[in-house]
Design goal:
Layout lengths: L1 H12 L23 E7 L2 E6 L3 E2 L2 E2 L2 E7 L6 E6 L7 H7 L4 E4 L14 E3 L2 E4 L12 E5 L3 E5 L5 H4 L5 E5 L2 E4 L2 E2 L6 H4 L4 E7 L3 E7 L12 H10 L2 E6 L8 E3 L3 E2 L19 E6 L2
Antiparallel strand pairs: 1-2, 2-5, 3-4, 5-16, 6-20, 7-18, 7-20, 8-9, 8-12, 10-11, 10-12, 13-14, 13-17, 15-16, 15-17, 18-19
Length: 284
């Protein structure tokens, strides 16, 4: 099931390509199928994919993916935040008149505010925090002349950060220059949890992904390694993990929350957690 589903993903996201990394290893194109995914157009060059057969990695899953083609239309991509208090992602997105939004990086549950480096609208909101767990501050989502995901240069950030108007640090790094990064052996990475991730494909498409969890018989969640496998299958050249667990939320204009957040312990769309930051895509 894992093999079939991941190769199906390669087909729907790399359709039209002569080959993919998977086919180079002996997979016939005829084996690929997109039948396990429902596709819905959100806007020009923006598509929403939902897992239809409810199984991936041999367990029940609820996966939502939004793909934004950044090379075909000039969308605004930005970091949003609420530094003094927590807000629903939907409220942040609506304030920005966003088209798509996903929850962002790790934050202080009691005080609000990011616990790792955050820069928005060319302003440093939260400086680097050397006390934060290393794996949640190893990657950076950046917006400048282009949108990128890269390793966060912990010791050289002062000069590096001037190149970007928007920076969100998180982690772990999942895909680096097309190669899946091997995760550590902590319980955080090895346990199946709700997960959020963001990636950039070789074709300069932005991938926003949520994998729901903590919903028995409906959504098991993913380990970090499984999340990395999924982002690699989506043709990502670079990808990173965002804050997950009860924070995992994916929002679309006119649809509201499209995944199944876990904070209310009910498999519906009403269990979103108030959070401190997110990533939004808007039309300009």
């Amino acid at each position: 099931m894992v093999r079939k589903m991941l190769f199906g993903l390669v087909f729907i996201f790399v359709a039209g390509a002569v080959y993919s990394q998977e086919t180079q290893h002996g997979l016939s194109v005829s084996e690929l199928s997109g039948n396990d995914w429902v596709k819905e157009k959100v806007a020009r060059s923006v598509n929403w994919y939902t897992l239809k057969n409810n199984e991936l990695f041999d367990k029940p899953q609820s996966i939502n993916i939004v793909k934004v083609d950044l090379k075909k239309r000039n969308y605004d991509v930005s970091v949003v935040y609420s530094d003094s208090s927590r807000m629903l992602l939907s409220e942040m997105a609506e304030k920005q008149d966003a088209l798509v939004a996903i929850n962002g990086t790790f934050f202080d549950m009691k005080k609000g505010g990011s616990v790792v480096f955050l820069k928005a609208n060319d302003k440093i909101v939260t400086p680097p925090n050397s006390d934060a767990t290393a794996i949640i501050r190893e990657a950076a989502f950046t917006v400048g002349d282009s949108v990128r995901i890269e390793a966060f240069p912990k010791n050289e950030w002062k000069n590096w950060q001037t190149n970007y108007d928007e920076i969100m640090v998180s982690g772990p790094l999942l895909i680096d220059n097309g190669k899946q990064v091997e995760p550590d052996s902590s319980s955080f990475t090895l346990t199946q949890h709700p997960r959020s991730a963001i990636g950039i494909t070789y074709d300069y498409e932005l991938i926003l992904l949520t994998a729901d969890g903590r919903h028995e018989n409906n959504a098991n969640g993913l380990t970090i390694k499984e999340l990395g496998m999924l982002m690699k299958a989506l043709n990502c050249k670079a990808a990173m993990n965002l804050d997950g667990g009860g924070s995992t939320t994916l929002w679309l204009r006119k649809k509201s929350i499209i995944n199944y957040p876990s904070d209310n312990k009910v498999f519906d769309h009403q269990g979103a957690r108030t959070i401190a930051n997110g990533i939004v895509i808007s039309t300009n």
